Amino acid sequence: MPSPYPKFQIRLPHGGPIGHGLLLEEKGTNGSQKFMVRAGSPVRPEVVPSFPMRMPASHNLRQRLIDEGRIVPSTAWPGYLETIEDIVCNSPSSAAEILVGRSSNGWLDWKTADGHPLSDFLTASWYGPNRTWLVRGSNVSGVDLVQRLWLPENRVSVAAGRMRDGVEQGISKDQLRVFVDEDYETVAYSQRIQLVEEFHAFLSKMKPGDTVCTISNGLLYVGEVTGGAEQVASEDGRSNLRRPVEWQSVGYAYDDLPEELQQKLSIQHDLVDLTSVAALVAGLGRSDEELAEEAGSGAGDGSAELAVLVARRELELPQPTEELASELLVHDVEWLREVRDLLWDDRQLVLYGPPGTGKTFLALKLAEFLSGGPEQVKLVQFHPSYAYEDFFEGFRPQEDPQTREVAFRLTAGPLRELADLASREGNRHVPHFLIIDEINRANLAKVFGELYFLLEYRNKSVRLTYSGDDFALPPNLFVIGTMNTADRSIALVDAAMRRRFSFIELSPRLEPTSGLLRRWLEREGRDAEPADLLDVLNSRITDPDFRVGPSYLMKKGVYRDGGLERTWRTKILPLLEEYHYGEDGNIEQRYGLSSLRAALTPTSSST
């Protein structure tokens, strides 16, 4: 009986010859439709290094065909092998893999002569791009189905013990919702909603060629869906809905996985769409060299391999340079490099010190340098009434531009906006910085909410309060806070925040702040007297948190006629009066310019 499908072909890597095949209606042992490789098809003479580990079944089949003499050196294509008879394989992917010598998605790589992939000719529910899924099976009613059923039998399943018989692949979500509401009526409403989503994804979204992952015994296992869904009788009700999967022979240690992949794997659902990190999954077990070779091999369009290489681009924070240290008037570039290293290790730090020590200026300039420009830097300022809804997301009144009606709508705050920007494709290797000015002026536990957890556990996800989304802080998002110590609020910072941030002091008694004004005056070609006056002033202030920073004297207005006296009278003395509020003593006599200048003038001694 003739096949209802057209003829398919696949080009071997590096612009090699074209193999030919035919999709069969008969199903293989793994539940997929079988595929016939036609006699006379060329075969790549070598395999890529990861092939035996990632696709052991296809590798073993290929080697057996060579050993049996069914694949032999080719006379038509010198340097290649070829098939001397029709070879029936369990799936289109395994058929493609024995020809190209590497992992292959046969549903996409086998094409008609006019370029249409095999998947276009399957059932309508299998249209669309391939996805990557996580299905949990290590603890289904106390049983590890991964080790007991999935890996040994090349399956993946979802427990649906109460589901009525006759549920078929491709069922609509509306119909499935009716079934779940009736069959699971004693289950909580929120759980029924989740069951509908998971059942619909397994039955109607998942398709052959999709990648499926699961976790067991601290390892991530990866496979390819090779066939449709079926409902089977399961005595224990743990595996009623099943799909065939060809699993790779090895697992990947969870602790060694990319952080962004760990974030997605931490989402607490039984079935999770991992398509946003599909490239990270596809790259497991494959070196950059292998991926680059395959991307340029001419097999397919190379887009999958290129996507993996792009996703693997390392996040980097550039090392501060001598030029940056000179621009910021920092005494030693090594100090800047230590700040950079703390950011790299912890991804959060706080610059703290008295007013006028350049905390905000340094945070902005350093963030712009490390991120590559101001477009990746956002600044917010905390205050006592600042809340989670202002910072991350919340419902705010907004006017509909058409109806002019005002309604409360979920609106993203600055952290959510920056996190979404940082996690976009193409941005993941680019550092993004959130500067939080006066971070200690807000109720941090109230402002951060559940995000407090993510500051410490960057490889985890949490369920958001308002949107209900599963959210994780992107690995390329860094936070720099500034904190004023003059109001004593640093003493109120709790241990939870101290554990999540590194703290760097900017104080007039320490470099780079102590010599900042003197270096600035030298660069501007001005007399060093203001620096001398500031040193004497701070020597008279016993509490280091109340000492005056150099920024007050690093403005052009200070150096116009009478500017220094005006700045001292209107900015510095009022600041010191506030510090000494309620105390006896003459502020002018102790901290005034005349008193400080007198201290700088050498006194003559009589003999």
Give the CATH topology of the largest domain. Answer: Rossmann fold
| Percent range of helical residues | 25-40%
Helix count?
Answer: 24
Global mean pLDDT: 90
Low-confidence stretches: none
Q: Output the structural class.
A: alpha+beta
- CATH H-level superfamily of the largest domain: P-loop containing nucleotide triphosphate hydrolases
Radius of gyration of CA atoms, rounded to a whole number: 33 Å
Characterise this structure.
There is one protein chain. The strands form six sheets. Strands 8, 9, 10, 11, 12, 13 and 14 form a seven-stranded mixed beta sheet that branches. The chain has a five-stranded parallel beta sheet with strand order 16-19-22-15-23, sandwiched between helices. β20 and β21 (470-471) form a beta hairpin. The chain has four domains: 7-122, no CATH class; 132-273, no CATH class; 322-505, Rossmann fold (3-Layer(aba) Sandwich), CATH 3.40.50.300; 516-600, no CATH class. It is built from 24 helices and 23 strands. The relative contact order is 0.08. α10 (288-295) runs antiparallel to α11 (303-311) and α21 packs across α24 (593-600). 34% of the residues lie in helices and 19% in strands. The protein is elongated and about 105 Å long. It starts with 6 loop residues before the first strand and ends in a 7-residue tail after the last helix. By secondary structure, it is an alpha+beta fold.
